[in-house]
Specification:
The complex is a heterotrimer of chains A (147), B (376) and C (662).
Chain A (H helix, E strand, L loop, with lengths): L2 H30 L1 E4 L15 E7 L5 E2 L4 E7 L4 E7 L11 E8 L5 E7 L9 H9 L10
Parallel strand pairs in A: 1-2, 5-7
Antiparallel strand pairs in A: 2-4, 2-6, 3-4, 4-5, 6-7
Chain B lengths: L1 H22 L8 H22 L4 H18 L11 H26 L9 H6 L7 H14 L4 H13 L3 H15 L3 H14 L6 H13 L4 H13 L3 H14 L5 H19 L12 H5 L3 H21 L4 H14 L2 H15 L4 H12 L7
Chain C lengths: L1 H28 L2 H4 L2 H24 L6 H6 L6 H6 L5 H22 L5 H25 L23 H30 L4 H32 L10 H26 L3 H23 L13 H25 L14 H32 L4 E2 L2 H18 L2 H4 L7 H7 L1 H17 L5 H24 L7 H10 L2 H26 L1 E7 L4 E4 L2 E12 L4 E10 L5 E12 L4 E5 L1 E5 L2 E10 L5 E8 L3 H18 L25
Antiparallel strand pairs in C: 2-10, 3-4, 4-5, 5-6, 6-7, 8-9, 9-10
Helix pairs in contact in C: 1-3, 1-7, 3-6, 6-7, 6-8, 7-8, 7-12, 8-9, 8-11, 9-10, 9-21, 10-11, 10-13, 11-12, 13-14, 17-18, 18-20, 20-21
The chains are: A alpha+beta (147), B mainly alpha (376), C alpha+beta (662).
C-alpha cells in the first residue's frame, strides 16, 4: 500500500467506527429516552403497555397513603386530571403534599402508575422545571414571588 | 477615608505593574529557534540515558536520534513572527494601557460600589452600644447570649414577652417553658405561656393553654390575663353564659384604668352580639393588640378565623393522630355555626382512632356537649 | 474590608483588559517591552483577585449580612467551617473562585514561563487575560458577590442544608482546578494558532498542564460522586445527571488530550489534532459551566436561574468556542504535520484511545443536550437517563478497556502485536481465572458480571505486566530487574498507576452493580434485619440537637455471628428550621472495601420507620481507583523529562535548575 492508501484506509476505518457509534446513539435515543407527561397529557398520548415515562405534577393533597411496609400510594395531579401512583421505597426529603414531583416508571395493567423513582429535587420556593413549565402551559401555575 | 487610601494604593500598584515593564530596558531575549533547539538537545540526552538504563535497544535509539536530527535541521526554516511597528503607535498603546487601569477601575467602581458602607460583621454589631440597636438586633444579641448560656433563666424570662410581641409565638412558647423550668413557676410566666400557646394555635384556647392559665390562677387568683383567656376558652366552647359571667365578674374586680377593662368590655359586647345573631366569636384580643382587635371589622375577623380553622383542618389531614387537634376542630366548627362541618370533623376524627377507641368515646361525649352528634 | 475586596475585583478587571491587549499587540509588532507587560499584569491580577476572595470569605466567616450574598447563603449559627465553605456554595462566590483559580494559573505561567519563547508567553498570557476579563465582567455585571444591603438584616437565610457538608468544601475547588486548568492548554493552543507555528516546547508545556488539570478533575468528579452517594441518601454513585455529565465530558476529552499529548511530545505527531482537542476540552469545561450556571438544567447546582446570566454565558461560549474554532479553521493549514507511524504501534494505540474517548464524549454530549434541543424544536419534553448511557457509553468503553493493557507495551512507530499478546498471557490467564471463579463460586453471578470482573482483573494485571516487562522480569537476572525497576522513568509508573486505578474503579462498579443487594422494610425498635450475611438490629430513634438543626437519629447495632454488638450505624433525618428543609443523613459502615449503607424514611404513626438498606460490595474501590489515578498523574508530573530546558551557554544541556516548571 502506498502512504496515501494507508492513510485513506485508516480514515475509512475511523469513519465506519463513527458511523456505528452514531447509529447506536440514535437507536438508543429512540428506545431509551423517556418522555415527560403531565396527567392531562396522558389522554392524548399513545403509550405502549409497560413503556417507561416520566410523570410529573403536584402531589394531590390528602392522597398520600402509607400502607404497611414501605409502599406509598399517592395521586399526581395537574389540577385537571389526576393519576394514582404507587412507589415502594423511601420518598425524597422534599416530597410533600401540594408540592411538585416527578415520578418515573410505567403503567401497570390496572391503570395505576408504578414508579421506581420519585424525584423532588427542588427547594421550597422552586418547582422541578418540567413541572413548572407544564403547569404554566396549563394556566394553573401562578408565578409566586420567592422571598 | 481609610478605604480611599487603600483604593489609591491598590490602583497605584496595578498601574506600576503595567508602567514599569513599558518604561524598563528591553531585555535581550533569544529567538524561538533557540528554545526548540534546547528541547531537542534535551531529548537527545534523555535518549542516551534510556539507552544506558537498558530501556531502549540501540537499534531503536539510533532511529530516534536520526529523527531528532532531522527536526533540528528543519528548525532553520522558522523565522521570527510579526513585523516591527512604528514608534508612534507603540507609544499610543502604552499610554492608553497605563490610563485604562485607573480610569476603568474608578469609573466602574463608582457605578457598582458602596464606598460609604462599612463592613458589619455580626460580632461587631452585637458588641456596640445596645441603646443604638434595633429591636431585631437586641433579640439577636439575646439569642446569641442564650445559645451560649442556655441555662440562664432570667434571659429566657426577658426574651419570652419580646417574642410574643414580635408574634414569634412558637419561640415564645419555648422561651416561657425554659424560663419556668429554670427559674420556677410564676403567675406571669404561666399566663404568658398560655397566651403564647393560644396564639400559636391561632387564638384558640387549647387544653395545654387552659392548663397553663389555670396554673397561673393557682399562683395568683387575680391574674387578669389568665382569667380573660379562660373565659375566652369557655366562649369558644359555646358556653357563652359561663363566659359572660366570668367576664362580668372580672370587670367588677378590675381596678379603674386597668388596660384589661377595654378588652373585657369588648369581649362582652361581642358575646352579647353573638347571642343575638348567633354569630361566630371574635378572636380573643391578645393582650398586646387590644387596640388592633377593636378596630377590626366583624367581616375581617370572621375571615381570619375561617383561615385559622382551615389551617387546623389541613394540619390534621397531614398529621391525623392528634387527639387534641380533633377536639379543637370540632369545637371551632361548632362555634362557627358550621354544624355539618363539625359533624364531618367528628366522624373523621373517630375514623382515625377507630370507632370503639377511648378517643372516639371521648370525642362523642365532647361533641355532644357542643350539640353535635356523630351521625345524622 | 468588603468594599476593598469589591474595588480589588474591579481593578483586576481593568488589569485583565491591559493584559489582553498589550502583550498581544507587542507579540504582533515584536515589541519586547509590551510583551513584558503580560507577566507582572498576570501576577498583580492574581494578587488582586485573591484579595477580593479573602475579603468575601472574611465577610462570610464574620456573618456580615450587609453583603447580600452572605445574607442569602449563611446563618450566624452555622459552624465556622460551613460559614467559610459557604463562600463558594452559591453562584456568585463560586464564580469568584473560578476566576481566582484562572488568575492563579495565569500567574504560574508568568512565574515559570521565563524559559518560553517570548512571543508564545505573551500570547498565552493575553488569551488567559481575555478569559479572565470576560469572566470578571460577567461577575461584576450579573453576579456580583459584593452587592450590599443597607440597612443590614440581622440574620441570614442559611446555606442550603445539603451543601452543609465537608464534601462541598472539597468538591468545587477540585473541580474548578480541573476545569480551569484546561484553560492553560486552551491558551497555549490559541497562542500557537495566533503565531501560526507550534514550538517544540509547546508540547512539553501542554502535557504537564493537562496532567495537572486532569488530576484535579479526576479528584473533583470522584469527590462529587462520593458526596452525592452519602449525602443524597439514594445509595447511587452516578446518576447520569446533566450536571455530572457536564464535568464528565471535559474529563473524557481531557483523558484523550492526555494521551494525544504523549504522542505529540514523544513523536511530534498528531500536533493539529492535539491542538484541536485542547480547544475542545476547555470548550466542554465552559459548556459545563454554562449548563450548570445558567439554570438551563434543573439541579441542586443550579444556583442561578436568572436568564440574563444565561445569555451572558452563552455570549462567552460563542466568543471563545466559536472564536477559537474559527481561528483553527483559518490557521490549522499553516501548521506542519508531524511524523508518520504504522497503525500497529504505540501511536496507533493512542489514536485508537482518542477515537474511542472522543466518540464517548460525543455520545454523552448528545445525551445531555438532546432533551434541550427537542424541547426547543417541539414542545415535547423528554429525559435521557441511565438506560441511554448504558446502551451507548457502555459498548464504547468495554472495547477501550480491553485494549488498554496493549497500549503501553507496544513500541513507538512500529509495534509487534503478537509479541505484546504473548507478554500479556499471564494477565489474560489471571483474568480468565477471575471469570471462572466468579461464575462458579459466587451465587447469582450472571455471565456479564463474571466477564466484568474478568475485565477489571485484566486491567489490573495488565498494569502490573507493563511494569514487569519494562523492568525485564523473566528475561534478565533478578538483581538487574530490581535495578531496572528502580530506574524506570516515573512516567512509566504514572501510566501503570493510572491504568491500575481504572481497573480498580471498574472492579468497584462491577461489584456494586452486579453483586449489591438491597432491602426496603419498615422496622420497629428491636427488630433485626439480615442482608448478605450482615445482621442489623434497630435500636430506636433518638432526638438530637445540632448547631443549626435538630435531628432524629436512628441507631442500628451491627451484630456479630454470636449476637454480640460488633459495630453501630447511625442514620438521621435532619431538619433545618431556617429553610424548613429536611435532609437524610445516611448511615454507612465500611467492611473491607465494601459498605453497608442505610437510610431512614419517615416515621409511621405506629412508631415504625421505613428503612432502606443496601449491601454494596467493593464500592469504595470506585473512588479508591480515582485516587490511584490521581496518584498516577502526580507521578507522571514528577517525571523530570517533562521539564523544559532554558537556553543557556553556561550549563550543559539537561542540567536544568529544579525551579523550572512542573
Amino acid at each position: 500500500m502506498t502512504r496515501k492508501q494507508k492513510r485513506l484506509s485508516v480514515i475509512a476505518a475511523g469513519l465506519a467506527f463513527l458511523g456505528v457509534a452514531t447509529g447506536l446513539t440514535f437507536y438508543a435515543l429512540g428506545q431509551k429516552a423517556s418522555y415527560f407527561y403531565m396527567p392531562a397529557d396522558l389522554a392524548t398520548a399513545s403509550l405502549q403497555p409497560g413503556q417507561r415515562i416520566r410523570l410529573g405534577g403536584l402531589v394531590e393533597k390528602g392522597t398520600v397513603e402509607r400502607s404497611q411496609g414501605a409502599t406509598v400510594a399517592f395521586s399526581v395531579t395537574d389540577n385537571q386530571k389526576d393519576v394514582k401512583v404507587t412507589y415502594t421505597g423511601i420518598l425524597p426529603d422534599l416530597f410533600r403534599e401540594g408540592q411538585g414531583v416527578i415520578t418515573e416508571g410505567s403503567f401497570g395493567p390496572d391503570g395505576i402508575f408504578v414508579a421506581d423513582s420519585v424525584l423532588a429535587k427542588h427547594d421550597e420556593t422552586y418547582m422541578p422545571k418540567e413541572v413548572a413549565d407544564g403547569l404554566k402551559a396549563k394556566g394553573v401555575w401562578q408565578e409566586s414571588k420567592s422571598d | 477615608m481609610l478605604f480611599w487610601v487603600i483604593a489609591a494604593i491598590l490602583t497605584l500598584g496595578a498601574s506600576l505593574a503595567v508602567l514599569l515593564p513599558l518604561a524598563g530596558e528591553t531585555k535581550n531575549t533569544s529567538a524561538a529557534g533557540d528554545h526548540d533547539l534546547e528541547v531537542y538537545r534535551d531529548q537527545l540526552a534523555e535518549l542516551d540515558r534510556d539507552v544506558a538504563r537498558g530501556l531502549i535497544r540501540p537499534m531503536e535509539a539510533e532511529e530516534a536520534r536520526a529523527e531528532i536530527a532531522r527536526r533540528i535541521l528543519r528548525l532553520s526554516n522558522a523565522g521570527p513572527a510579526g513585523t516591527t511597528a512604528t514608534q508612534r503607535s507603540t507609544r499610543l498603546v502604552a499610554t492608553a494601557a497605563v490610563l485604562v487601569v485607573p480610569l476603568v477601575s474608578w469609573g466602574l467602581y463608582g457605578q457598582l460600589g458602596s464606598p460609604d458602607l462599612p463592613s458589619q460583621p455580626l460580632s461587631e454589631r452585637l458588641a456596640k452600644n445596645p441603646a443604638d440597636s434595633s429591636v431585631d438586633e437586641l433579640v439577636a444579641r439575646a439569642e446569641a447570649h442564650l445559645a451560649a448560656n442556655p441555662s440562664d433563666g432570667r434571659g429566657w424570662d426577658v426574651l419570652a414577652p419580646v417574642y410574643l410581641r414580635m408574634q414569634r409565638y412558637a419561640d415564645a412558647v419555648t422561651a416561657y417553658r425554659n424560663a419556668i423550668r429554670l427559674d420556677g413557676d410564676s403567675a406571669a410566666r404561666q399566663a404568658g405561656l398560655g397566651e403564647a400557646i393560644a396564639n400559636a394555635a391561632g387564638g384558640i384556647v387549647s387544653a395545654d393553654a387552659q392548663a397553663a392559665f389555670e396554673a397561673a390562677l393557682k399562683l395568683d387568683p387575680a391574674n387578669p390575663k389568665a382569667s380573660f383567656y379562660l373565659a375566652m376558652g369557655l366562649a369558644q366552647e359555646g358556653r357563652t353564659a359561663e363566659a359572660t359571667a366570668a367576664w362580668q365578674k372580672m370587670l367588677a374586680a378590675l381596678p379603674q384604668g386597668s388596660p384589661w377593662r377595654g378588652a373585657v368590655e369588648q369581649a362582652l359586647a361581642e358575646s352579647a352580639a353573638r347571642n343575638v345573631a348567633s354569630e361566630a366569636p371574635a378572636k380573643g384580643p391578645s393582650a398586646d393588640d387590644i387596640d388592633a382587635a377593636s378596630s377590626m371589622s366583624p367581616q375581617d375577623r370572621q375571615a381570619m378565623i375561617s383561615t385559622m380553622v382551615a389551617g387546623l383542618d389541613e394540619k390534621l389531614r397531614q398529621n391525623p393522630r392528634d387527639e387534641e387537634g380533633w377536639m379543637q376542630l370540632v369545637r371551632s366548627y361548632a362555634v362557627l355555626g358550621k354544624t355539618d362541618q363539625a359533624r364531618d370533623a367528628l366522624n373523621r376524627g373517630i375514623a382515625v382512632f377507630g370507632a370503639d377507641s377511648d378517643q372516639a368515646r371521648k370525642f362523642t361525649a365532647f361533641a355532644a356537649s357542643l350539640g353535635v352528634t356523630a351521625t345524622e | 474590608m468588603v468594599e476593598t475586596g469589591h474595588f480589588a475585583l474591579v481593578l483586576a478587571f481593568a488589569l485583565a483588559l491591559v493584559q489582553t491587549v498589550v502583550p498581544l499587540f507587542g507579540a504582533r509588532t515584536g515589541n519586547h517591552k509590551m510583551m513584558a507587560v503580560g507577566a507582572p499584569a498576570a501576577l498583580t491580577g492574581f494578587a488582586l483577585t485573591a484579595l477580593s476572595f479573602v475579603a468575601l470569605a472574611t465577610a462570610y466567616a464574620g456573618s456580615d449580612f450587609s453583603v447580600e450574598s452572605v445574607w442569602e447563603n449563611s446563618h450566624s449559627l452555622q459552624p465556622l467551617i460551613y460559614k467559610i465553605t459557604g463562600t463558594w456554595g452559591n453562584h456568585e462566590g463560586s464564580m469568584l473562585l473560578w476566576v481566582l483559580i484562572l488568575t492563579f494559573f495565569g500567574a504560574l505561567v508568568a512565574v515559570f514561563g521565563g524559559n518560553l519563547p517570548a512571543t508564545l508567553r505573551a500570547n498565552v498570557l493575553a488569551v488567559q487575560g481575555a478569559i479572565g476579563a470576560t469572566f470578571l465582567l460577567f461577575i461584576l455585571t450579573t453576579s456580583n458577590p459584593f452587592v450590599r444591603l443597607n440597612p443590614a438584616p440581622i440574620e441570614g437565610r442559611d446555606l442550603n442544608p445539603i451543601l452543609q457538608d465537608l464534601g462541598l468544601a472539597i468538591h468545587p475547588p477540585l473541580l474548578y482546578l480541573g476545569y480551569v486548568g484546561f484553560s492553560i492548554c486552551f491558551s497555549f493552543s490559541v497562542a500557537a494558532l495566533i503565531e501560526g507555528r507550534i514550538d517544540a516546547s509547546w508540547a512539553r508545556w501542554v502535557r504537564p498542564w493537562t496532567l495537572v488539570a486532569w488530576m484535579f478533575l479526576t479528584g473533583g468528579i470522584a469527590m462529587g460522586s462520593y458526596w452525592a452517594y452519602y449525602e443524597l441518601g439514594w445509595g447511587g454513585f452516578w446518576f447520569w445527571d446533566p450536571v455530572e455529565n457536564a464535568s464528565f465530558m471535559p474529563w473524557l476529552a481531557g483523558t484523550a488530550l492526555l494521551h494525544s499529548a504523549i504522542v505529540m511530545e514523544k513523536r511530534s505527531a498528531l500536533k493539529i489534532w492535539t491542538l484541536l482537542l485542547a480547544i475542545l476540552t476547555f470548550s466542554l469545561s465552559l459548556l459545563g459551566t454554562f449548563l450548570v450556571r445558567s439554570g438551563v438544567l434543573t439541579s441542586v447546582h443550579a444556583f442561578a436561574t436568572d436568564p440574563t446570566r444565561g445569555v451572558f454565558i452563552l455570549c462567552i461560549l460563542t466568543l471563545f468556542i466559536g472564536g477559537s474554532l474559527a481561528l483553527f479553521a483559518l490557521r490549522a493549514s499553516r501548521l506542519t504535520a508531524g511524523g508518520l507511524f504504522h497503525p500497529i504501534s504505540r501511536e496507533g494505540a493512542l489514536v485508537l484511545n482518542n477515537l474511542f474517548l472522543t466518540t464517548a464524549t460525543a455520545t454523552v454530549l448528545v445525551g445531555t443536550l438532546y432533551p434541550l434541543v427537542v424541547e426547543a424544536l417541539s414542545a415535547d419534553k423528554i429525559s435521557v437517563g441511565a438506560p441511554f448511557f448504558n446502551l451507548t457509553f457502555g459498548p464504547l468503553m468495554v472495547p477501550l478497556l480491553v485494549v488498554v493493557p496493549f497500549g503501553p507495551l507496544l513500541a513507538w512507530k512500529r509495534g509487534d502485536i503478537f509479541a505484546v499478546a504473548q507478554r500479556l498471557m499471564a494477565a489474560f490467564a489471571a483474568a480468565l481465572l477471575a471469570v471462572l471463579v466468579t461464575a462458579l463460586f459466587i451465587d447469582g453471578a450472571s455471565v456479564l458480571a463474571a466477564l466484568g470482573v474478568g475485565l477489571a482483573f485484566w486491567l489490573i494485571c495488565g498494569a502490573f505486566t507493563d511494569l514487569a516487562v519494562k523492568s525485564g522480569f523473566g528475561t534478565v537476572a533478578p538483581a538487574t530487574v530490581l535495578r531496572r525497576f528502580a530506574g524506570l522513568p516515573r512516567s512509566v509508573f504514572g501510566t501503570a498507576l493510572a491504568h491500575l486505578g481504572l481497573g480498580l474503579t471498574t472492579l468497584g462498579i462491577v461489584g456494586t452493580l452486579c453483586f449489591g443487594t438491597e432491602k426496603i422494610l419498615s422496622m420497629h425498635a428491636g427488630d433485626t434485619v439480615e442482608l448478605s450475611g450482615h445482621t442489623l438490629r434497630f435500636e430506636g430513634l433518638y432526638p438530637a440537637q445540632g448547631p443549626n438543626y435538630s435531628e432524629d437519629r436512628g441507631r442500628f447495632a451491627l451484630l456479630g455471628a454470636d449476637g454480640s454488638i460488633a459495630g453501630e450505624i447511625t442514620s438521621a433525618k435532619r431538619s433545618y428550621p431556617v429553610r424548613q428543609m429536611t435532609t437524610t443523613e445516611s448511615g454507612i459502615s465500611t467492611i473491607g472495601f465494601s459498605q453497608l449503607y442505610l437510610s431512614l424514611g419517615d416515621e409511621a404513626s405506629d412508631g415504625s420507620v421505613v428503612v432502606r438498606l443496601w449491601w454494596k460490595p467493593l464500592v469504595t474501590l470506585i473512588w479508591g481507583g480515582g485516587l490511584v489515578m490521581m496518584a498516577g498523574a502526580a507521578m507522571s508530573l514528577l517525571d523530570r523529562r517533562l521539564r523544559v530546558g532554558a537556553p543557556s551557554s553556561r550549563k550543559p544541556a539537561g542540567a536544568v535548575p529544579s525551579a523550572s516548571p512542573p
